[in-house]
Design brief:
10 helices; six-stranded mixed beta sheet; alpha/beta; single chain; 2 domains; globular; Purple Acid Phosphatase, chain A, domain 2; ten-stranded mixed beta sheet
Length: 410
């Protein structure tokens, strides 16, 4: 029986038409994507359209013309997550235009909606021999206004992103905690002024006597200085219930998470993400994928389902003035080609190394010129696989070199 194949790529921050590239390794990559039943990316931009929108950011703002969707479609991509930090760059109008333009082209997509109920509803489509369901969410950090909300008796609905609610808690030693308390006491203001400064977000809820709300950030007296990311269990349960419902209908579920709560070393997997990934599989997902940190992170196999904790970048179009992206790791990634049997268990997986802009551009070119992803059939490609294999081994994943690619050992 022909296996069901899924090609998972890094995030696509795409602003340019790259179809005219003459690089044969780019076209080989495109042909590989076109042979998969599902070819997935995270659309890391907002699309202009008939709904008016305005820039909601200063730095790191980005929007794209609908043409970029035609580019992705011609490259073989048929499945898009819309849940990410750029989805709201043009506000509610940009969310609605993106949904409209993506829908008009027939992409399977999820992660945003005209209200909260719609945004958190997974979407399904028949792709190949299976009905595929995509559940996509974003965990921030981001302003409350970027997330979809339902209508109430005194307020209309807000188009936006599907939110997995998490909160940040800093544990600090007694000396630092007392210092923060003293600073807060020195500038103590009335509740009205505090409320003014919280807008547009509501103040955090502080119920533990060990905690203080230090101007919107919660600190806890602790023996160690450490940041914690805590999931809201009600929010997580709602997301997992949607995954479970689709799985019980016999659908092939891809669970997707976007977040920017990175570890100091971007290549490391946050503990809370690993916990949530496993819960998604326990609920019925057959693939878990994550983006946000623009670098490749380890791969884990859990209950015959691949957990892609971070697939880095697939397309990463940055403006000329942004100089933050000098690390070579930003421009190296893989495309994971996963084969599943009739029962939905992973039966094989190849990892195809890619370099954004190509190896020569990585050595000599400027970041804004590295527009086209190409297969890395070189020593650098083999080093990408070797590095990923080394870091994934600590998660019990064995990856072997197979010519210029990587192969999962089941």
């Amino acid at each position: 029986m022909t296996p069901f194949t899924v090609a998972m790529t890094g995030q696509s921050l795409i602003h340019h038409d790259i179809r005219a590239s003459s690089d044969s390794s780019f076209h080989d990559l495109v042909q590989m994507l076109k042979t998969a039943d599902v070819a997935f990316t995270n659309l890391e931009t907002t699309i202009t359209g008939r709904h008016p929108g305005w820039p909601m950011k200063g730095s790191f703002f980005g929007c794209s013309e609908p043409l970029v969707l035609d580019v992705l479609e011609d490259m073989g991509i048929n499945t898009l997550s819309l849940a990410n930090n750029h989805a709201f760059d043009l506000g509610p109008g940009g969310v609605l235009s993106t949904i409209e333009e993506v829908g008009a082209r027939g992409f399977l997509h999820a992660g945003t909606g005209a209200d909260r109920a719609t945004a958190m509803t997974p979407r399904s489509k028949r792709l190949g021999a299976k009905t595929v369901t995509l559940a996509a969410m974003d965990a921030g950090p981001g302003p409350a206004t970027m997330y979809a909300d339902d209508a109430a008796s005194d307020r209309p609905a807000r188009p936006g992103v599907n939110r997995l609610e998490v909160r940040r808690l800093f544990g600090v030693d007694p000396e630092k905690f007392d210092m923060l308390t003293a600073i807060q006491s020195a500038f103590k203001s009335g509740e009205l002024e505090r409320a003014n400064y919280y807008q547009p977000d509501d103040p955090p809820v502080v119920s533990d006597p060990r905690d203080i709300d230090f101007y919107g950030t919660v600190f806890r007296r602790s023996a160690q200085n450490r940041r914690h990311i805590l999931m809201d269990q009600t929010s997580a349960s709602n997301q997992l219930a949607a995954i479970s419902d689709a799985a019980h209908r016999g659908e092939f579920v891809i669970a997707y998470l976007h977040h920017h709560h990175w570890e100091p070393d971007w290549r490391e997997v946050p503990d809370w993400v690993r916990v949530f990934a496993r819960r998604c599989v326990d609920a019925g997902a057959r693939i878990f994928a994550c983006h946000g940190a623009p670098v490749l992170q380890p791969v884990e196999i859990y209950k015959s389902a691949p957990l892609f904790f971070g697939l880095g970048n697939f397309i990463f179009h940055v403006p000329e003035h942004e100089a933050e992206w000098n690390s070579a790791d930003v421009w190296k990634s893989v495309v994971a080609r996963c084969c599943f049997n009739e029962g939905g268990a992973l039966s094989a997986m190849s990892l195809e190394p890619i370099i954004l802009g190509g190896e020569k551009s990585l050595e000599t070119g400027l970041p804004h010129t590295r527009r086209v992803p190409v297969l890395a059939r070189s020593e650098m490609g083999r080093s990408i696989i070797a590095d990923l294999a080394r870091r994934s081994a600590s998660y019990g994943t064995k990856i072997e070199a197979d010519c210029s690619s990587g192969r999962l050992v089941l």
